[in-house]
Amino acid sequence: MASEPGTAELRTPVFNGENYEFWSIRMKTILKSHGLWDLVENGFDVSDPKPGKEEEEGSKVAEVEKSTMAEILMKDARALGLIQSAVSDQIFPKILNEETSKGAWDILKQEFRGDK
């Protein structure tokens, strides 16, 4: 896949269990460049909208909320994919069952950085 002229494609570094601090700084920069870091750092709320009257205006609000949640879920899937592709096959099983980018990031952070 070719990048646009004048732009550099950022490649994800592969984390193999060593030099977590360097890897995490590089990944944070890559995630920021894709507009995904805030989602990885803070996660998102998947709580259901409050039940209300099924008015036409309420339906429009629900549609907007549903559309916004779909966008958030897609962005989170992109972020999770970047994180998954940036770990070695030996590290991947640690985040295998995580369904959010924040969950995967937090596991790696706890495992390899700890409470430092």
UniProtKB/TrEMBL annotation:
UniProt xrefs under Pfam families: Retrotran_gag_2
Top-level taxon in the UniProt lineage: Eukaryota
PANTHER family recorded: DUF4219 DOMAIN-CONTAINING PROTEIN, OS04G0629600 PROTEIN
Protein name: DUF4219 domain-containing protein
